[in-house]
Every structure is written in structure tokens, then in C-alpha cells.
Amino acid sequence: MNILILTYGSRGDVQPYIALGKGLQQTGNQVTLATSVRFQDFVETHDLNYAYMNDDLLSIVDTDDGKDLMEKADNVFEIIKQGIKLKKQVKPANQALLRESWEAAQQADPDFIIYHPKALAAVPIAEKLGIGCTLATPIPMFVPTDAFRFPAFPNLNLGGWYNRFTFHAIRILTNMVVKEYIQDFRKEIGLKPVNKFDSIKTANGGDIPILHIYSEAVVRRPDDWPDCAQVTGYCFLDDAVDWTPPQNLVDFLEAGEPPIYIGFGSMSGRDPERLAKIVIEALQKANLRGIIATGWGGLKTEDLPDTIFKIEQAPHDWLFPKMAAVVHHGGAGTTAAGLRAGKPSVIVPFFGDQPFWGQRVHEIGAGPKSIPQKKLDVASLSEAMHEATTNQAIIKTAKDIGEKIRKEDGIGNAISFIEEQAQLSWIVRI
């Protein structure tokens, strides 16, 4: 088959789709992956065909308004509020992404489409081409359930009715926002408008198959989900095979006890110096060695003590197994990497689904209670790192979960699901 993968977002929104694409290619399929141009080299380095998407939406994150979104939008209501402020910037970027997705499809001539939740054009394109598609998501954010709430909603502990309500509410809000884009796009590619738009339904009301690419050791598949929604396990991209660590990093690791990793990816907010200061002082207060990853737009550090080492980045599959614990923002990909390594996680959520993963890690016993970034200070971070490195129950649970995750074949399970769905390509036809 010719398979088109449409994805958009940060590196964590691209990496698992590259892993899946490589797996599909190894089983005899031709794969084209369309995403932001900032990740073109990343895609092509892994021998996948690349199709262009602009970088405009990601660039908004680097603006003051974008940093406000990350710092202030720690629940769905703040996300909506901040999203309204950015509407004028976001609308043309989204419209361009829809057109570029169609251009990618014309380039790839696919028999099947796999798409990330942000790839809004996928379903209309599949309908136009008369082919099958599946939504592949690293977050349980589409299928209503009594078991847990939509990730960005507050945890009110009101039971199953509230949990299910949150999914319906976010679908209504999302559909209201994107319906205009989708209707215009359908017209552009020669499709009739739909009377009732739903992001997880075909134009004729059929269910879109949904592939959840995370582990049931972290979030068990709810019993009340339909058969079209499945959980496969994580899709990991192992970069360590082709990576050589710098000698000074090796020397630091060998010079003492395993350190703690601290990295917040792109979530540095408007005051990265404040984060760096808290991290450094918390490590010293807890008497722990640390590795600080600055990452994309990340922490600024100067004059570090000998017990702290700064890196720009390193493959998580190489670095995390060598750590005593990992401290991060709770992005789906970094959370997966920490759990796979079998290391306790301290999560400092900033935005979106990150509080959900922080809660899940704590609930399954693989880390202490998460610390919202607004409440992060030296005392709370120091205490959490101390707990993560001394609490034997947490250490053992994290190790056990890591062993379970490493035994899973997320990519193989996902490919089996995709091959099955490809035989049902009529699902998107009218």
C-alpha cells in the first residue's frame, strides 16, 4: 500500500508517527509523512518520504501570546480563552495546513491515511479519494467513557456521568470551532458540505476507527469503548542505535551516583531563567546530581556546579535508563519514555493533556504527585525528587511497569489494526 501519515505539532507529535511509518515501510508499504517543515530532516533521516507543511502554528508558540497559552492554559476553559485571543493568527495557518494536506495527498497518491488529531483535513481527503483512514492518537481524547475524564478538564471526581460529559462537551466545542474550516475545505476539493459535522464521524455518519498508541499498563482500555477504538501500546522510535554520546556526558555519568534528568522540552514559558534557578536550587537542596536538558527554546543555565550537567538533547532511550528518576512536563512522548525506562517520574505539567499524564503516573504508582508549573518552587521540587529516588514502592512499581511496556509490540499491533482497517475502505465512502 501507499500510506500517507498526516501529523502536526511538537517533536512528540511527530516521533511516534515516524516510528509507525518505519514499521509500515519494513512490512512492504510505501510511506509518506507530512508534517511541519522544521521536522523535514528528522523524517528524511529515517528514510521516509516527506511532504511539506508550514511551520506557522508552531512559530506562534514562540511568541509572547503563545507562551501565555502554555503558562496560563492549564485547563480546558483557559485553553478556550487563550485560543480566542490567538484566533486571528491561528485561522490562516489552519487553512494553509488543510491545503497542504491535500497537496501531500496528491503527491503521495495514498491507499490509506493515518492521521494525528491536529490533521483536520484527513477525513475529507479520504472521502474524496475513496480510501480508508484511521485516527492515531497518543492521548485518549475522543471516545467518551465513564472510566476517566477528557484530559484537559479539571478532575472533579464526580463519577462516570461527568467523565462522559467532558468528552461530549469538548467534541461540541471543537466541532463548532473547526466546522467553518472543514466546510470551506470540502468545497475546495469538490465535496458537498455536511449537515452535521463531527470530528470522529464520516460524512455518512460512520465511525472513524481510532488507534490509541499508548500502553494499557498506563491507561487501561475502558470496557465501554466501541470496537472501533483500540489500544496498541506505544510506538517508540529508538534513536540510540545511531547516536554517540559526547565524552563529557559519559564522564559525568561515570563520576558518581545516577543523576536525575530534568527537561521541559518546549515548555519553558516566558521565564526560563526562573525554571533553571528552581531546578538548580532544588537539586542542591536534595543533594542530588542532575542532568538539565535545555531542548527547544528551553532552560538557560550559566555557571552550573559540578554536580549538574547541561545537555542540549540526547535520545531518551539511551539516557533515561541511566537516570535515577526523570523530571519533565508530562508530554505524552516523554512520559512514555520515562515509564519505558522503568524510572520514577516527577511531572510538572504546563498545558493541555500534561496534567492528565501527571495524574496517571501518580495513580499507577510510578511517581509522586505531580506539581503544576504555577506552583513549582524549590521546596516542592526538592521534596518530589527526594521521594522519587528513595521511596522503594515507587521505584519498584516504575521498574515493573517499564518491564511490561518493553514487552509490548505497539508498532506491530498498530500495523495489524491498520491492515485490517485498510480492507474496509468503504467506511469513508458516501
TrEMBL record:
Keyword Glycosyltransferase among UniProt keywords: yes
Source organism, top-level taxon: Bacteria
GO biological process: carbohydrate metabolic process; vancomycin biosynthetic process
Keyword Iron: no
Domain Glycosyltransferase family 28 N-terminal span(s) in chain numbering: 3-140
An annotated Gene Ontology molecular function: hexosyltransferase activity
Enzyme Commission code(s) on record: 2.4.1.302
Pfam families: EryCIII-like_C (PF06722), Glyco_transf_28 (PF03033)
Protein name, per record: Glycosyltransferase
UniProt cross-references to InterPro entries, sorted A to Z: EryCIII-like_C, Glycosyltransferase_28, GlycoTrans_28_N, UDP_glucos_trans
Species annotation: Vibrio mangrovi
Upper taxonomic lineage: Bacteria, Pseudomonadati, Pseudomonadota, Gammaproteobacteria, Vibrionales
Swiss-Prot/TrEMBL keywords: Glycosyltransferase, Transferase
